[in-house]
Design brief:
By secondary structure, the chain is an alpha/beta fold. The protein has 2 domains: 55 residues, no CATH class; 119 residues, Zincin-like. A hairpin with a 5-residue loop joins strand 5 and strand 6. The longest helix is centred in the middle third of the chain and has 26 residues. It is elongated and about 65 Å long. It starts with 9 loop residues before the first strand and ends with a helix. It binds zinc ion (ZN). The site of zinc ion has 3 residues, from helix 4.
Length: 189
């Protein structure tokens, strides 16, 4: 006897020796050795049920998001170019640093970055996140101008400048992927 509701999945048997499961395009794909019994496969899936359900939920959320149009992206970049430098200026005083140039780009891999010369780079998709999350990214990058690492000292600087940092950093980790994925869809066009 396994879980109450049977999971639907696509089974691919091959000469492999181990079982694996992945979520591909919203579908559960199981790879199994040629002769492994169905009961063993189901038991394996059952042991990973929580993970599978979480991944299925995530992929449903991703499938539901609308891709960003070019016009929307340009509008985001425009508002980011007004909004972000002002916040950077505000937090730079709190952190106690000076900075160089600020660039705004649409990026798939990061929310913000900084260079050794003190130039800062921010993702215009931040404008699709709550202002508190934007502040978390801005403070993170500004604190790198003091500490070019992720040491405990760095994080204590970050939290001193922005006490709600952890909460909003977590928010970005949990929700950021769905926002970024709207940009990835454009790239496919
Ligand atoms: Zn960092």
């Amino acid at each position: 006897m396994i879980g109450v509701i049977a999971l639907e999945y696509r089974l691919i048997r091959s000469r492999r020796k181990t079982l694996s499961v992945e979520i591909k395009g919203g579908e559960v794909v199981v790879r199994a050795p040629e002769r492994l019994s169905k009961a063993r496969i189901d038991a394996f899936l059952d042991s990973r049920r929580a993970w599978i359900e979480k991944q299925l939920e995530k992929s449903a959320e991703l499938a539901a998001v609308e891709p960003i149009s070019r016009e929307e992206l340009e509008a985001l970049a425009r508002s980011a170019k007004e909004y972000i430098p002002a916040r950077v200026g505000y937090y730079a005083q709190i952190v106690g640093v000076t900075y160089g140039r600020i660039t705004i780009r649409a990026q798939r891999t990061k929310w913000g970055s900084c260079s050794g010369r003190g130039n800062l780079n921010f993702n215009c998709l931040l404008m699709l996140t709550p202002p508190e999350a934007r502040d978390a990214v801005i403070v993170h990058e500004l604190c790198h101008l003091r500490e070019m690492n992720h040491s405990p000292r760095f994080y204590s600087d970050v939290r001193r400048a922005y006490p709600e940092y952890d909460k909003w950093n977590r928010w970005l980790r949990e929700n950021g992927g769905a926002i970024i994925s709207r940009l990835e869809k454009i790239a496919e066009v």
